[in-house]
């Protein structure tokens, strides 16, 4: 297909999404990554090409192009003009009306029911990964998705800390019921603008709180009893106690919202038609109104391959004199699970400023074990080490270390740290 790349619509940790149009005048979204970074996109292509549901973003093909001396992998998607659910919440002052929450929740649950019954777990349900089209909500961003049958195996675990279910935060498993927990968090996001764990101010503490306390996120007091009962069916610490998507579809909260769906659909259409989103390539006003500098900024993102070596990062970390200092950054975008060649796990997240936050687990022996810890930590902390450790480092666009946090937990015989909540530096 011959097509032209238009303005940037959005960007995430792995890809940039632009508007595209074909010679025949079709408008679509193009999700692109450079060829050496394209594994997530290729994976997403495989998944999306096997799915077809009104509640899942539509797949339209893929290709490879050469642009500005870069080879790009492009995934063509149905263009969804209304932005993300998170954008919608923001545009409504950080809170949606309960009837609207019910309407979008119903569509997300339909999407999850479709995915789960087809053997997929999304693994990163949140407002930023739900797109709002003319017919309402559609699930998007399948970069973390997994087959249900592979979930039990030792596959890397992914997701966004604030939306992680307890069993995910502990690194145990990530199944359909983990998506249902994230759905509960997304409802809270719709009701109060995204603050699921308001009193925790860094992702590692969030994961500890979720994984190892007996707490639940606070249910927004603005919600009705019925909506709170629905939340209660999603946010149960024991994954076996959570309702399935199919059961949730029959919950009175969704049944009631469904009966109002016609008027909501009309409202969405009206708000989308008054937005400046193009429906065809002839809508030149939109094209010229978009800030082209957006797409230039993409080049400022730090990709893992561009970052300096682990040793260098460790050296920088060891130079830190201050203790951990974190501000919760609500704009952190996503986290990705990935396995490096030596079996370590890493997760990258990119915040709104384009800085990379890197979580990971590392097999210490493969990096010199004890020596690494000595390099990494000051003596005071070193004396407390008995095994696993936990931390997060954040790198700026220039790869300089911005913030770090390292903690330790109980003794293990080996220094193998199999999963995220435990560490952080990555070779
Ligand atoms: N089909 C689409 N139609 C319109 N806009 C889209 C579409 N897909 C994505 N976008 C926009 O691009 C942004 C980034 O897309 P997406 O989340 O799929 O990328 P990503 O790199 O996988 O992100 P993440 O880092 O969250 O995993 C979205 O937040 C949204 O604003």
Automatic annotation (TrEMBL):
Its EC number is 2.7.11.25. PROSITE patterns: PROTEIN_KINASE_ATP, PROTEIN_KINASE_DOM. One of its GO terms (molecular function) is MAP kinase kinase kinase activity. ATP binds at residue 31. This is mitogen-activated protein kinase kinase kinase. Keywords: Abscisic acid signaling pathway, ATP-binding, Kinase, Nucleotide-binding, Nucleus, Phosphoprotein, Serine/threonine-protein kinase, Transferase. Residues 258-270 have a biased composition (Polar residues). It catalyses: L-seryl-[protein] + ATP = O-phospho-L-seryl-[protein] + ADP + H(+); L-threonyl-[protein] + ATP = O-phospho-L-threonyl-[protein] + ADP + H(+). CDD domains: STKc_MAPKKK. Signal peptide: none annotated. The lineage of its organism: Eukaryota, Viridiplantae, Streptophyta, Embryophyta, Tracheophyta. One of its GO terms (cellular component) is nucleus. Pfam families: Pkinase. Residues 258-279 are annotated as: Disordered. Residues 3-254 form the Protein kinase domain. One of its GO terms (biological process) is abscisic acid-activated signaling pathway. It is found in: Nucleus.
